[in-house]
Structures are given as structure tokens and as C-alpha cells.
Design goal:
alpha/beta, Alkaline Phosphatase, subunit A, Arylsulfatase, C-terminal domain, eight-stranded mixed beta sheet, five-stranded antiparallel beta sheet, about 40% helix
Length: about 550
């Protein structure tokens, strides 16, 4: 009989902040208990530093820049869930993010969507931002921008219509959204560049509530408007009395689905689904603003979890005081997520394959920033990854692994043959120990159209990391500058750039790193010979 499969992905879950990997605070006790029957990867890396390309990597075992980039999701790729369905599994996706849904090509036999309409709008407006930025800077004219945005707007229109229909909305709001969206689309196609000038001029990064969502937000029923006015008035009064209380009221509702509610949905599906089943779910509680507990009184739970991890910060201070408050609340959110994982693991029992991984890490002031802003430092890409299941012995994998290996490992544990297009290997494969490097890659956000966006690539070995950045100069040419080289064995926090600190000039291995990056970018069609020559003059000349 085929084993059931439980796949849990964790948002912004930093490996070095887990007690599973040696952190001093007890942030992951349930994961530690699972270790006794699990394969744990000690050196796992995400290939990118944000959710969309990272989950695509995990579920298709392909690189972010493959198949024209990740804007269109699984287009041109074979996902793990397609494979599992062909192996006779009932696939269930409980999605708290639009990136892993049918909107981006993923196919589940049962798909639950626990995200807002604004979150879906944000996925498409983010893709548009890079093209609008070039238009605002005078790099292209409105006509060319219109032609570029046309397919994105078409996909947006279809996605919103499907989203509202799938929710089964037949109320006033559903009809209002449909009317406003169709009016926008008619205006867009009929007026073309004039539409852009009216609605999107001087907005390099259009936000959904400032653009499409503005009209249906305020064109609701009089009763809804009255309630909204009363809520805003009460928030203003509270703000005059107590600024801290006002902040808590502003964040009374979580931006993402609460971990406890998500765990309950997983358990319900596991109890009722026909076997064999595969359930995937994505926990968001460790994403900023790190709210450990359910709203609207999440801060009470957060205080409890902060105390359990040995912290003293007040959770409400996370919104106006970075530093200690955010760091301790992040640890609390990790413990809260770990508890929900423990609930789910106990419910599914010992007969299921359990695969757990984070999509990326999180920067907590380590390099002067907070969040995961498209950088490839270790705190952004070093992730926990583990696999448990029937007959699995306690194993620690010291070799270099990545999210490319996530899907092949699950396939092997099911006794199935991995898809021939997959680039990764099962983490227990003998070749894992022979890997001398892995290549990480991302872009700075927005679209993954490498014709206009410069990439950010890194080569990681067991004891070092080389980071390479492409930029645009004043003449809108792609050039490379700002290389960084770190010795992870002696500088795990990546604070001393060895390239600049070495008294003997460039380390001899520098050209080895550059060759690896050049060879990878040669596989990407958007990189012409001239572009490669500008980026790697010495290597291309020697070729």
C-alpha cells in the first residue's frame, strides 16, 4: 500500500534560528522529536530568497531562470503534484499564497484558497512594476509599455474572474468586482497608452488598493461604508489615548491565514480524504510582522510564546521598534508554527511520509535590513529541510543540498521514479556527498524578465560563498560590479568580504567562481554573447 504524503512548507523560516540546528532558544521542539525518524539536511539552501521562485524550485526540481523564468509558474515544467496524481495519489493543496495555485499552473484535485483578492492582485501588479519603472524613467515609450503589459493584464483579468467564481460569491461585492474589472479591461484595450497615463502614471510600483481595488473598496453598500467609518473613527480615538493600543487595533487581523486554523484544515482533510493522499500546506506565521497566535488578540498569545523562548520584549513594539522586539517576536512565531506542525504530525500518524522545508530564510538586521529583500546571504537562503516516514532511520546529511532535491526525495520515498526533467537528486543519493558547490539565483523583485532585469547569482561551497551582481549603468547596459566573497567556516555571518580583505589581491579561486556563474548564465537564452562579454570579459576572452 502506498504511504500517504504530508508536505509542509514554512515561510521565512531561518535555519540558524531553529533549536533543531543548534539555536540556543527552544524554538522547534516538535521538529527535534521528529528527528528520531527522519533524514535531516544540515546544509540545505533555497535557490532564491523569496517565495515564488523558491516554491517553484521545490515542487518542479528546476531552477528559477529555467523555462523563461518564474513569472508564468510551472509553464514548461513538470510539478511534483502532477507526478503524484499520475502515481495514483489524491492531491490536496491548502494554499495560503497565490503563487502555488491553479493561477500559476499548479494542478490539485482539491484546491483550497486562503488568501485575499488583494493578495492575488499584488502578484500581477508586482510583475508589472519593472516595466512601469522603465516607462517612468523614459527608457521606453507608452506604446511599447502597453504591448508588454497586455498579456499580464489578460492573465490578471482571467485570474480575478476565476477567483471570484471559485469562492462562489453571488453577492453585491462579487458583481461589483466583475463590473469594475470588465470596465478596466475595456478601457485598457480601447485606450491603450492613454489608459496607462491616466491610471498608472507616477506609480512605479502600483499597489492593488491604489489602483484596481480602490473602486470596489469604496463602492460598497452604505451599511459597509458606515461600519468602515465607525471603525476608523474608533481607531483614531484610541490612537489619541494610547499609540500602542492603536497599533494593535490596526493589526487586529492577520495578513495571512493563522497557523492554528491551517493545521485544523490539514487534519480535517487527512481524516476524510481517500487514500493514498498527498496534502500540501504553507505556514505563514514566521512572515513579517511575526504574529504568534490568532487575531484579533494575537498579542496575548505572542507574549506567551515570547516568554517560553526566554524573551522579554512587548509584541506591540515590533511595529515601531526594530531590533530586539522583532527578533524575539520572530522566535515566538517559530515556536508557534512548530506547535502547529506537532499537532499535524501527531494527527497523521507514523504511516505518512512527512516532508518539511522552508521556502527561504529571513534577515533580522544582520546586514542592516529586515525581511527577505532578494539577497542571497546565508540568513536569507539557509533553510531547514527534513523527511520522515515509515522505515526511515535517523540520518544527518552533511553534503550540500538545495530545494531542487525536495521533489526527487519525496518521489524516492514513495518508490517512484523521478521525472527525467528534474535537476535535483534524492538527499540520500551517493552523489550528494560529492557535490562541491551549488548555484543560487534570483532577481531583485518584480518580473523575472531577464531581458530587462539584472540577476543576482551566488556560488556556495561547504566553506565559502561568492555573490555576483549584475547592474545597469547610465547607458542602460548590463555590467557587473560589487562582487562579494565570504569564508563561511570562519565568518558564518558574512561580514568580511574576503575579496577586499585579502592582502594578496584576488584569491586564486575567484576565477573558478566566475566560471561557474558564467556557465550557468550561458544556459539562459536572455544572455547574449555581448552581455556575457560585458559581465565576464576575462573569461570570455580566454574562451
Amino acid at each position: 500500500m502506498k504511504p500517504n504524503i504530508l508536505i509542509l512548507t514554512l515561510d521565512a523560516f531561518r535555519r540558524d534560528r531553529t533549536s533543531l540546528h543548534g539555536y540556543s532558544k527552544p524554538t522547534t521542539p516538535n521538529l527535534e522529536r521528529l528527528v528520531e525518524r527522519a533524514v535531516v539536511c544540515e546544509n540545505a539552501s533555497a535557490l532564491s530568497s523569496w517565495t515564488q521562485p523558491s516554491l517553484l524550485t521545490a515542487f518542479t526540481s528546476s531552477r528559477p531562470f529555467d523555462c523563461g523564468g518564474f513569472d508564468d509558474g510551472v509553464k514548461g515544467r513538470r510539478s511534483l503534484f502532477d507526478e503524484l496524481a499520475s502515481w495514483g495519489y489524491k492531491t490536496i493543496g491548502i494554499s495560503t499564497t497565490p503563487w502555488v495555485t491553479g493561477f500559476f499552473g499548479y494542478k490539485f484535485q482539491i484546491e483550497e484558497r486562503h488568501f485575499s483578492l488583494n493578495a492575488l492582485l499584488g502578484c500581477y501588479t508586482a510583475q508589472m512594476s519593472s516595466y512601469l519603472e522603465r516607462w517612468h524613467c523614459g527608457k521606453v515609450d507608452a506604446d511599447e509599455t502597453f504591448k508588454t503589459l497586455k498579456p499580464i493584464m489578460s492573465r490578471l483579468s482571467l485570474a480575478v474572474s476565476r477567483f471570484m467564481r471559485a469562492r462562489g460569491d453571488r453577492n453585491y461585492l462579487a458583481s461589483l468586482v466583475d463590473q469594475i474589472l470588465h470596465a478596466h479591461m475595456r478601457d485598457f484595450y480601447n485606450r491603450g497608452p492613454d489608459y496607462l497615463r491616466e491610471h498608472l502614471a507616477n506609480r512605479p510600483v502600483p499597489k492593488s488598493h491604489e489602483w484596481l481595488g480602490a473602486k470596489w473598496k469604496w463602492a460598497r453598500s452604505p451599511l459597509w461604508l458606515a461600519r468602515e467609518a465607525a471603525k476608523r473613527l474608533s481607531d483614531s480615538v484610541v490612537g489619541l489615548i494610547s499609540p500602542s493600543a492603536a497599533i494593535l487595533r490596526r493589526y487586529r487581523n492577520k495578513r495571512f491565514m493563522d497557523g492554528s486554523a491551517l493545521a485544523s484544515r490539514i487534519i480535517a482533510h487527512a481524516a476524510s480524504a481517500d487514500e493514498p493522499w498527498c496534502i500540501w500546506a504553507h505556514f505563514h506565521d514566521t512572515h513579517y510582522p511575526y504574529l504568534a497566535g490568532a487575531g484579533p488578540r494575537w498579542y496575548r498569545d505572542s507574549r506567551y510564546y515570547i516568554a517560553r523562548t526566554g524573551g522579554t520584549a512587548r509584541p506591540e513594539n515590533v511595529f515601531d521598534e526594530p531590533g530586539l522586539a522583532r527578533s524575539e517576536l520572530y522566535d515566538a512565531a517559530m515556536l508557534y508554527t512548530d506547535e502547529q506542525i506537532g499537532r499535524v504530525v501527531r494527527a497523521v500518524g507514523d504511516r505518512a511520509i512527512i516532508a518539511i522545508a522552508a521556502d527561504h530564510g529571513e534577515e533580522l538586521g544582520d546586514h542592516g535590513d529586515w525581511g527577505h529583500h532578494f539577497r542571497l546571504y546565508e540568513h536569507n537562503v539557509a533553510v531547514p529541510m527534513m523527511f520522515a516516514g515509515p522505515g526511515v532511520r535517523k540520518t544527518r546529511v552533511a553534503g550540500l543540498t538545495t530545494l531542487l532535491d525536495f521533489a526527487p526525495t519525496i518521489a524516492e520515498m514513495c518508490g517512484a521514479k523521478p521525472d527525467f526533467m528534474w535537476r535535483g537528486l534524492p538527499v540520500t543519493h551517493s552523489d550528494i556527498a560529492k557535490r562541491d558547490h551549488v548555484i543560487l539565483e534570483t532577481v531583485y523583485g518584480g518580473t523575472c524578465d531577464l531581458r530587462i532585469r539584472p540577476p543576482y547569482v551566488a556560488v556556495r561551497t561547504k566553506d565559502s560563498k561568492f555573490l555576483w551582481k549584475e547592474h545597469r549603468d547610465a547607458k542602460d547596459r548590463f555590467v557587473c560590479r560589487g562582487d562579494e566573497l565570504y569564508r563561511l567556516d570562519s565568518d558564518p555571518g558574512e561580514h568580511t568580504n574576503w575579496k577586499n580583505a585579502s592582502p594578496y589581491g584576488l584569491p586564486p579561486k575567484m576565477y573558478w567562481y566566475l566560471d561557474k556563474i558564467r556557465d550557468r548564465l550561458r544556459e539562459v537564452p536572455e544572455f547574449s554573447k555581448d552581455r556575457l562579454l560585458d559581465a565576464f570579459p576575462a573569461q570570455e576572452a580566454a574562451q
